[in-house]
Amino acid sequence: MSLAASLAAAIVDYDAGNLRSVQRACHEVGLNAEIVGDPESLLRADRVIFPGVGAAGAAMQSLHRRGLGSAIKEIIARGTPTLGICLGLQISLDYSEENDTHTLGLFAGNVRHFKLADPSLKVPHMGWNEVRSVKAHPLLQGLEAGDEFYYVHAYYPDPIERSIVYAVSDYEQEFACALGRDNYFATQFHPEKSGRVGLRLLKCFSTWEGTC
User: Fold this and answer.
1) pTM score, whole prediction
2) Which alpha helices (H) appear in 10-101, and where do they start and end?
3) How far is CA 161 from CA 93, 153, 157, 158, 187, in A?
4) Which H or E element spans position 155?
5) 177 given a catalytic annotation
6) 96 occurs within a structural domain
7) What does the buried/exposed string (b/e) look like for 99-138 if buried means 16 or more CB atoms within 10 Å of the residue's CB?
8) How many structural domains does the chain have?
9) Does the active-site annotation cover 97?
């Protein structure tokens, strides 16, 4: 591939985990996705996936060091369809309580640590949980009552604008689990680990033109 050629999809490599799982799931739905860690590759991608498992502070350091934070902001401003996953969603807000970290500010709001009263509920929240749509979105097409996605997280998004919340879940309390605006959509759950329903979301993303 020449340097000028576009990528069908770029998975952002910023030293966060789980990238290969995302890549395998993309390939399963027919989306040719490459893992890239440089701004130039992101800027020539037809669509971008911003996933990750790890800590907010270390993730932001890596993004700044590689120049990827500004590239992500540019591709979203350009209208490139972009999907954030888990840590990718969390560092899309203004601030995370994890490591007292100032994040990218793509969505207004904070990321908060679960503070649970029920001692039987463990943090991090790990496993399957129902996702309920509160507003229609092309990437949630086909979502039905009772559909569950897989989670691994100790922090959850608390956006200021409720209009950007497309789905919620419950873990003692209700929390937003899918946020979106224009060509950017992001989930707290892991589509790549969520079997049939997760692959359906990734399949929708593979053809999404970036409009709600």
Assistant:
1) 0.95
2) 19-28, 39-43, 56-66, 68-78, 87-90
3) 11, 22, 11, 9, 16
4) strand 155-159
5) no
6) yes
7) eebebbebbebbbbebeeeeeeeeeebeeebebebeeebb
8) 1
9) no
pLDDT in tens, the chain (212 residues): 334 467 899 999 999 878 999 999 999 999 999 999 999 999 999 999 999 999 999 999 999 999 999 999 999 999 999 999 999 999 999 999 999 999 999 999 999 999 999 999 999 999 999 999 999 999 999 999 999 999 999 999 999 999 999 999 999 999 999 999 999 999 999 999 999 999 999 999 999 998 87
Strand partners, 129: 149
How open is the CA angle 97-99-103, to the nearest 5 degrees? 70
Supply the CATH number for residue 202's domain. Answer: 3.40.50.880
Residue type, 3: L
> Among residues 26, 137, 177, 192, which one is catalytic?
192
Expressed as residue numbers, the domain containing 150 is 9-207
Instruction: List the catalytic residue out of 86, 98, 125, 177.
Output: 86
Is 137 annotated as catalytic?
Answer: no
Cα 199 from Cα 195, distance rounded (Å):
6
